[in-house]
Every structure is written in C-alpha cells, then in structure tokens.
C-alpha cells in the first residue's frame, strides 16, 4: 500500500551527561545532583525509506535535490517536555549531506511560525551546521523550548548547496513547504515563493525531555498505519486519533510514535526497508518504548511479483515478537483488514490473509490482539471493508475508519 510517485495503492539535562538504562527504556540523565534528572522519550518519528529504491523492472526516480532552499516541515508532537532534540538523517545516502542550518519554532498553521518561539538548532555542542555521513544520523543538542502534548512545531532546514535527499518519509499526509534562499526565521513561507510536498526529508525523530517519566507506544505497520487517504494536515491517521484519545483521558505521559511506511512488507525491501530489517531501529531502539501495536503483512500478500507464503509472514512476525518481548516491550498484534475489491486482491491472497489472522488470534506469546479484521468488515460481505469506513479503494480506511481503529484499542493496556 503506497501512494506515491509510482502510484501504487497501497529525559535530557543541559551540559555533559551520561544516559543510563532504566525500566521503560526512556533515557534518564543525571547531572550529579540526585534531585535533578530528566527523562528523554521519542515524541514524533517518521520511519525512513530510500527514495532510490524501486521494484525490479521499474525506472529509478532521482531523489529530490534542494539547492539554496529552505524546507519547512510540520510535525505534531505526542509527549510534551521542557526541551527537545531533532535527529537529522542521511540513512540511505552514499555521500555526506550538509544541513547548513536548522531552526525549530511553534507552528501557527500552514508554513507560519511564531517568531517569538524560533530557536536555532545546534549540533556537536554548538555548531549551527552539521555534515551527516552516508548511512548515518545525528541528534541535535538539546533545545530549551518547552512544548505541550500534541503541539505542532515547524522544523526548518536550509541547504546552501545542491543536496540530493534520498532519505525520506514519503507519505506524510502533512504539507511540507519549500522556498528559495535562507528563510529559516521567516514568519511564513506560504505564497508564490513556496513549493509544497507531501513528504518528510532527512528528518527522522524528535525527542522531548521532561522531569516526569514517560512511556511510548510504537505503532508499526504499512500505509494503513501511515494514514493513507486520511485528510491532509488534519492529524486523522489512526495513530493520531489514538493519541487524541489518550490525551483526552488524561494520559499525558503516554506517547504515540507512528512507525508506518506506505507499501511496507515484512519480507522484501521496496517500499521502505523490510519490516524485519527495520524493526530494531523503528521499534526496539525508540527511546521510551514500552509497547508496540503491529499491523503489517497485507502487502506481502498482495504484491504477487514477489510471492510469499502465510508461514513466511508469520515467521517474520514471530521473530519481531520475540525480539520485543526480550526487551520487556508489550506486543499487541492487529489482524489484517479485509481487502476484497482492492487492486491486488486475489482468492489465493485471501486464503493467506485468513491464515495469518488465525495465527495472530491464537498466538499465546503476545499481550493482546486488536481484531481490526472483524472491526472493519462489511456486514454484507465480511471479505470487504465496511462502506462506512472505506476510503474508496477497498483497502484503506477513511477518517471515520481510522477513528474506529483508534477506538478499538483499550487505553488501559498501554499504561
């Protein structure tokens, strides 16, 4: 499940500190005073893909190149805090990428920012720019910028020279603004000088730090988790709507991280690194992770050019479950949604889906099942998605469907 250029449906204190492991996997940092410590947790993430990666037989599309341009990217944080850090990434690059400048500010809508909140983001103890080698990522110095849960912030990046950017999160469902020149501290990029995209570029993670311990739930999956066909700029993906429920219920220190990649599969790369290969980076290594909800596998079934069996899919699931449980992370599995009528539906694929779902429902090694299949199926034909929840492609939910998915999760199990 991928909406894209190929058109598939488819807690930190300032100064020198040492991070130590604690239950819940949030990093706790001490400054020498037993009464003074902060806890750092992931507050937003965009799981990354290689823009250069294509299916066999398809033409390679050159990655986006920025040259003397400012890229302003809007993210909605989950956990609030007293400070934040930004991770910039060149994970899939083969040459160094120079981020000539990075700023962060509170978003006021579209490309607008609150200038009073504008902060320069520094790296390596005070450097305004950073060079990130190919295959690497760099986390910024802490930025002393208090943020509230569910706050929207704008992260502006300036690229002074021609900079190909193969490391992306392609399906953002959030507008990214691009403008000529160094406009890191410009109040608004909207208008004729600004171009717009629906992807994130070179941006992997935002962490927030607080004196209160936090917990993070990572939602791992494909375009259904990524929010395909949800309303753009409205935070209507199912992870967003689950986050809304948590915060409305008073669980302000439980965060949601969306680790969905449109088109993703367990067993093959394209689109995105395979679920098996990225599970450690996108789930196990996330600061603060205590639980994960996994919904992945329908693309393994649907993409018939690289066929897999139900047993191969469930073995991949079992490997991920074991890895998470070994770190004390609670694992909830989502059953695969109905997909009859989708462009890659087949009777053989349906048999695999039913086998995978039966394996999930009977699994004794997980902490719970979210039965999205039964929740989303049509009363008239359980092999199809309920028309009330159907975005129109018989595969992805609409905003109401994503709301129903979020409502199906028992908040108490995430505490």
Fold topology:
Elements: E1 18-20, E2 27-30, E3 37-45, E4 49-50, E5 64-66, E6 69-76, E7 83-90, E8 97-99, E9 101-109, E10 112-113, E11 119-120, E12 130-132, E13 136-139, E14 152-159, E15 163-165, E16 167-169, E17 176-180, E18 194-197, E19 200-201, E20 203-210, E21 215-221, H1 223-226, H2 238-248, E22 254-260, H3 275-284, E23 289-295, H4 298-302, H5 310-326, E24 330-334, H6 347-361, E25 368-370, H7 372-376, H8 399-407
Parallel strand pairs: 21-22, 21-23, 23-24, 24-25
Antiparallel strand pairs: 1-2, 2-3, 3-20, 4-16, 5-15, 6-14, 6-17, 7-13, 7-20, 8-12, 9-10, 9-11, 9-14, 16-19, 17-18
Helix pairs in contact: 2-8, 3-5, 5-6
Report on this structure.
This protein has about 425 residues and is of the alpha+beta class. Helices cover about 20% and strands about 30% of the residues. It is built from 8 helices and 25 strands. It has helices spanning about 225, 240-250, 275-285, 300, 310-325, 345-360, 370-375, 400-405, and strands spanning about 20, 25-30, 35-45, 50, 65, 70-75, 85-90, 95-100, 100-110, 110-115, 120, 130, 135-140, 150-160, 165, 165-170, 175-180, 195, 200, 205-210, 215-220, 255-260, 290-295, 330-335, 370. The strands form 6 sheets. Strands 6, 9, 10, 11, 14, 17 and 18 form a 7-stranded antiparallel β-sheet that branches. It has a 6-stranded antiparallel β-sheet with strand order 1-2-3-20-7-13, with no helix packed on it. A hairpin with a 6-residue loop joins strand 1 and strand 2 (about 25-30). Helix 2 (about 240-250) crosses helix 8, helix 3 packs parallel to helix 5 (about 310-325) and helix 5 packs parallel to helix 6.
């Amino acid at each position: 499940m991928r909406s894209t250029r190929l058109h598939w449906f488819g807690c930190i204190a300032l100064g020198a500190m040492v991070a130590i492991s604690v239950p819940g996997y949030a990093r706790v940092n001490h400054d020498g005073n037993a009464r003074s410590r902060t806890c750092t947790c992931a507050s937003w993430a965009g799981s990354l893909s290689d823009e250069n990666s294509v299916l066999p037989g398809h033409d390679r599309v050159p990655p986006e190149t920025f040259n003397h341009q400012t890229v302003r990217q809007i993210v909605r944080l989950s956990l609030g805090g007293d400070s934040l850090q930004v991770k910039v990434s060149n994970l899939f690059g083969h040459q160094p990428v120079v981020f000539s400048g990075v700023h962060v500010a509170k978003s006021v809508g579209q490309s607008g920012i609150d200038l009073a909140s504008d902060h320069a983001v520094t790296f390596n103890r005070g450097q305004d720019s950073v060079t990130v080698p190919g295959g690497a990522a760099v986390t910024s110095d802490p930025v002393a910028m208090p943020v509230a849960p569910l706050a929207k912030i704008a992260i502006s990046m300036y690229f002074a020279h021609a900079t190909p950017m193969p490391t992306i999160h392609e399906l953002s469902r959030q507008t990214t603004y691009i403008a000529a020149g160094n406009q890191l501290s410009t109040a608004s990029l909207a208008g004729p000088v600004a171009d717009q995209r629906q992807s994130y570029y070179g941006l992997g993670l935002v962490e927030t730090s607080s004196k209160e311990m936090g917990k993070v739930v990572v939602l791992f999956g494909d375009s259904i988790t990524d929010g395909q066909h949800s309303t753009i700029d409205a935070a209507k993906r199912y992870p967003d709507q689950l986050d809304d429920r948590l915060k409305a219920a008073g669980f302000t220190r439980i965060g949601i991280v969306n680790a969905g990649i449109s088109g993703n599969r367990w067993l093959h790369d394209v689109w995105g690194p395979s679920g098996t290969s990225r599970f450690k980076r996108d789930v196990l290594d996330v600061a603060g992770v205590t639980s994960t909800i996994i919904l992945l596998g329908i693309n393994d079934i649907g993409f018939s050019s690289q066929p897999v069996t139900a047993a191969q899919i469930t073995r991949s699931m079992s490997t991920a479950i074991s890895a998470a449980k070994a770190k004390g992370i609670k694992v909830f599995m989502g059953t695969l949604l109905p997909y009859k009528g989708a462009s890659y539906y087949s009777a053989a694929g349906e048999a695999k889906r039913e086998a995978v779902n039966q394996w999930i429902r009977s699994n004794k090694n997980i902490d719970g099942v979210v039965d999205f299949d039964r929740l989303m199926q049509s009363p008239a034909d359980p092999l199809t998605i309920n028309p009330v929840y159907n975005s129109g492609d018989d595969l992805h939910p609409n905003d109401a469907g994503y709301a129903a998915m979020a409502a199906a999760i028992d908040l108490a199990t995430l505490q």
